Amino acid sequence: MTDLFTLAGRKALVTGANTGIGQAIAVTLAGQGAHVICAGRRSCDETVAAIETAGGRTQTLLLDFADPMAAQNTFKGADVSILVNNAGIIRRADSTEYSEADWDAVIDVNQKALFFTCQAFGKELIAKGQAGSIVNIASLLSVQGGIRVPAYTASKHAVAGITKILANEWAAHNITVNAIAPGYISTNNTEALRRDTDRNAAILSRIPAGRWGDPDDIGGTAAYLCSRAAKYVTGAVLNVDGGWLAR
């Protein structure tokens, strides 16, 4: 069997593609031949430029998941067969001081928007009898608690659970649903931790790989999960950088 890893002829939508992990995934999928729709609440021009410079096909779409239903009409007639749910936010505070406003904001973007975006995508594919792939970006905190990020931790546990239930329900429709659970990656979300000398040192001391991950490390894993090579993989939550012992 040849061309197991190619994504040629397929169209993908990557949320939160303007920077970090989402940007790396979008560039990698395009490099494997997919036409990538780069979606974000802010401009994805940098990502689009990187894809076009490498000869890939792409376009941009503004989606702000402060409205969890923002993607409800995105997939109708769009011929998208790959969905990567990467968009997410984080709010930090001690659990004794965490506000309802911060809780609601994080849960709306990271959990509610992810589910209803998957729902809109799945309904379109099932109605057409079309196969597809979903990759959700979970987290190290999908399996452990972390500190000072209660809503983020709750939302990423939910991402793992949503991944598994949709995998169960949609396997018969040839739609695979998997998640990637990165350890600590150098992104905007972790900038505050990396600036904190003591916290940074403590984190590095507990990461088996001994380093912060690079967003590019995630791209190949996502491309694999969307390819024919992973046709029999669904409901998996993959750790990608050996960071499980960190907190």
- Order of neighbouring strands in the sheet with most strands: 3-2-1-4-5-6-7
Which spans of ≥5 residues are poorly predicted at pLDDT below 50?
A: 243-247
Number of domains: 1
Number of strands: 7
Helix content: 25-40%
Structural features:
39% helix; 15% strand; Rossmann fold; single chain; alpha/beta; disordered C terminus; 247 residues; 7 helices; seven-stranded parallel β-sheet
Helices and strands in order:
Elements lengths: L10 E5 L4 H12 L3 E6 L4 H9 L3 E6 L19 E4 L14 H29 L3 E6 L12 H21 L4 E7 L9 H5 L1 H10 L9 H11 L10 E3 L8
Parallel strand pairs: 1-2, 1-4, 2-3, 4-5, 5-6, 6-7
Question: In words, what does this structure look like?
Answer:
This protein is an alpha/beta fold and 247 residues long. It has one domain (11-187, 214-239): Rossmann fold (3-Layer(aba) Sandwich). Helix content is 39%, strand content 15%. The chain contains seven helices and seven strands. It has a seven-stranded parallel sheet, sandwiched between helices. α1 links the parallel β1 (11-15) and β2. α1 packs parallel to α2 (45-53), α1 (20-31) packs across α7 and α3 runs parallel beside α4. The radius of gyration is 17 Å and the shape is globular.
Provide a short characterization of the protein structure:
The chain is 39% helix and 15% strand. The chain is α/β, with parallel strands linked by helices and 247 residues long.
